[in-house]
Amino acid sequence: MPDQTVIKFDPYGHPDTGLQTWDPIPKEQIVAGDPVQRGHQFYDYANDRVSSGVWDCTTNTLKGGPYEVDEFMIVLEGSISIEDMSGNTETFRKGDSFILPKGTDCIWKQTEYARKYYIIHDNQSSSTLENPEKLAVIRVDSSAELPRITNHDESQYLSDIPDMGMNVLYTDPSGKYIAGVWDCSPMQRVAVTIERSELMHILEGSGSITNADGVEFSFKAGDTFLVPVGMGYQWKNDNYVKKVFCSYTP
After folding, report:
1. Domains in the chain: how many in total?
2. Per-residue pLDDT tens digits for 179-192
């Protein structure tokens, strides 16, 4: 059976069908606007209700309430504002990434059309974090200094031990859904089978991922793609790479 391959995301959806109109947002959730939402799902891991794709929507304001899923988002066009119950608002624009933890009490506002990439964990049986009143939208600051990783397993690399950093900004209560920022000097890993599904958005640099069949996927700054769980995985970057990421380990 052929191995899986890296799924490259397209902001306009499937190359043949584009973005398809999705079911309307329920009227009881709408405070303002007559929103029309469209999307394309590039990835679906049904057993754990993990999905990822591209979504767009016209202007709207939605009623406040606990956010029902864990969701990591990258804004591609327009802007999205998240208002907490104290009236504080965070606005995210093109190029921004953010995380809404499950249980966050907030209001979703769009004063303009917006488009985003997303990866959602929609497990209705999962719990929210303790002290839900402390939950809030998390802005991904890709410019912040990253803690360096020092406990490397040398057997993981075909190259010299790299200089690698990572800042995990959110971990769900199960420890399976995480999001953050990662960077690395030039390196090459040994071939493995990846044990997580990971959405990556490359901020700087370039490299490649090769699956078990020898199919090579090349990436560069600006690319967004997902590596599905269970795929053969050999990472290589010949120059410095920095990315934002969100992964789910079943």
Report:
1. 2
2. 999 999 999 999 99
Give pLDDT tens digits for 69-120: 999 999 999 999 999 988 999 999 999 999 999 999 999 999 999 999 999 9
| CA separation, residue 133 to residues 69, 80, 87, 139 (Å) | 16, 22, 14, 18
> What contacts 125, CB < 8 A, 6 or more positions away?
none
Structure tokens at 161: 């031990």
Q: What is the residue range of 199's domain? A: 154-248
Residue at token pair 């000097």: 185
Whether residue 218 is predicted with pLDDT greater than 90 in this model: the reply is yes
Question: Considering Cα of 51, then 35, then 73, then 224, what sign does the dihedral take?
Answer: positive
**Taking the model in full, what pTM does it have?**
0.96
User: In this structure, is residue 172 part of a structural domain?
Assistant: yes
Whole-angstrom CA distances from 28 to 24, 32, 113 are 11, 11, 21
Q: How large is the average pLDDT for residues 130-156? A: 92
Residues whose CB is less than 8 angstroms from the CB of residue 53 and which lie 6 or more positions away in sequence, other chains included: 9, 13, 39, 40, 41, 42, 43, 117, 118
C-beta separation of 103 from 121 below 8 A = no
In a domain, 145, yes or no: no
